Amino acid sequence: MFFDTLQQQTEEARAHLLRAPVLAAIPKGRFNLDSYRYFLGQAYHHVKHTVPLMMACGSRLPARLEWIREALVEYIQDEYGHQEWILNDLQATGADAEAIRHGRPDLPIELMVSWLYDIIQRGNPVSFFGMVHVLEGTSIALATPLGEQVQKSLHLPKEAFSYLYSHGALDQEHFRFFTKLMNGITDTVDQQAVIHASRVVYRLYGEMLHQIPITAPGQLQQESRHEQPA
Fold first, then answer.
1. Gap between the terminal Cα atoms of the chain
2. Which of 53, 56, 189, 197 is deepest in the core (most CB within 10 A)?
3. Helical pair 162-183 and 33-47, crossing angle rounded to 10 deg
4. What is each CA distance from 42 to 37, 38, 62, 206, in whole angstroms?
């Protein structure tokens, strides 16, 4: 089935993402408020494009893939407005949500979003599903367990984690739907387009994760000493 092939063909690119230092830093407590705000800010700047990208994909699909266009309608209903959840989470951390709304992402996310619009317009529109493969797969594996660790270490209210917690559960259902959708793609050109897009998005989204600021081990020890009573 194509989904299994997709997983196998993107294994190396996925490994790059999973080597992001932040993923090892969180369980060790080397993840601070700036780290979380940075992640949410970058998430906002790609999540706000999810529905427009779906619409762009749907408008470019050929008639032979009408069944995928139908599936996109369901996806759009589920994903609409999630960027506002992220801004609410940022506000709950004390960040200036409006400044982030009107700001710009760092280069990896800017390139990722731009590349997706371009490949949908000039290449194969099913490339969009490479992004779905990366983001929903990563969300299932990391969102809820890492979110719980971050909340515990940063002592933040649950209201600061609506995006992470909802997507850990929501994306499990989405991923089953996505798996079935991918297994329906039988054209080899379409399959290669999804594989290539997955590799590109793994690389760029992974670069964003690699850029998340974390506390250095020495700094963590210093902070612990400062917190001890004299």
1. 63
2. 197
3. 40
4. 9, 6, 32, 12
